[in-house]
TrEMBL record:
Name of the featured protein: GTP cyclohydrolase 1
GO molecular function terms attached to this record: GTP binding; GTP cyclohydrolase I activity; zinc ion binding
Organism for this UniProt entry: Intestinibaculum porci
InterPro entries, per database record: GTP-CH-I_C/QueF, GTP-CH-I_N, GTP_CycHdrlase_I, GTP_CycHdrlase_I_CS, GTP_CycHdrlase_I_dom
Family: Belongs to the GTP cyclohydrolase I family.
Top-tier EC class: hydrolase
Pathway recorded for this protein: Cofactor biosynthesis; 7,8-dihydroneopterin triphosphate biosynthesis; 7,8-dihydroneopterin triphosphate from GTP: step 1/1
Residues that, per the record, bind Zn(2+): C79, H82, C151
Pfam family of the protein (one): GTP_cyclohydroI
Any single biological process term in GO: tetrahydrofolate biosynthetic process
Any single GO CC term annotated in Swiss-Prot or TrEMBL for this entry: cytoplasm
Catalysed reaction, written as an equation: GTP + H2O = 7,8-dihydroneopterin 3'-triphosphate + formate + H(+)
Amino acid sequence: MIDTKAIEEHVLGILEALGEDVTREGLVETPKRVAKMYAEVFAGIHYSNEEVAQMFDKTFTQRGRDLVFVKDIETFSFCEHHMALMYDMKISVAYYPQGKVIGLSKIARICDLVCRRLQIQERIGSDIAEIMTMITGSEDVAVLIEAHHSCMSARGIKKTQAKTYTQTLRGVFAKHPEQLGGFYHG
Ligand SMILES: Nc1nc2c(ncn2[C@@H]2O[C@H](COP(=O)(O)OP(=O)(O)OP(=O)(O)O)[C@@H](O)[C@H]2O)c(=O)[nH]1
Ligand SMILES: [Zn+2]
């Protein structure tokens, strides 16, 4: 589990190092608030992909292999390089079932939990694809992500309009991304 006490102490240290008056009203409870926020936004750090797959393993028998595509699951994450927000993030997940389908809300739950880690956008895609394969048994999985990175917009190079698109294409989608039809960014 997250070490709340240690986070509070370190945040207090950062505020002091910033030259802040840590006794002023608005800051007195800030270390506690940040520790509570981190427990929420980093809740996925302590679960492996296998554990996430076990957590959301709710499937239904379904004959046929018709494409399933869940588009625009809105979420956010934090980049591991700057601990900065990835925002306006939309994740789309597609797969060809192999005799069973996963409950649709579980796909969104998987996306959210994977994003509750210190991440890079590319690995968010590969983690989700791996978990989808573990649960559905299907190798034919695609994860498309678009996001703004605050480490690119609010600091450094300051490109406020730049949006990053990543496509994790597995199985048939690697060979035939056109199977994603109008959803394909490329
Ligand atoms: N590939 C990838 N890179 C990312 C992601 N999030 C942040 N980065 C990049 O990680 C890199 C870290 O580079 P460094 O040179 O070590 O850090 P920096 O000096 O703060 O770099 P600048 O952002 O260029 O100022 C930066 O180029 C970020 O844009 C991500 O999701 N995927
Ligand atoms: Zn960053």
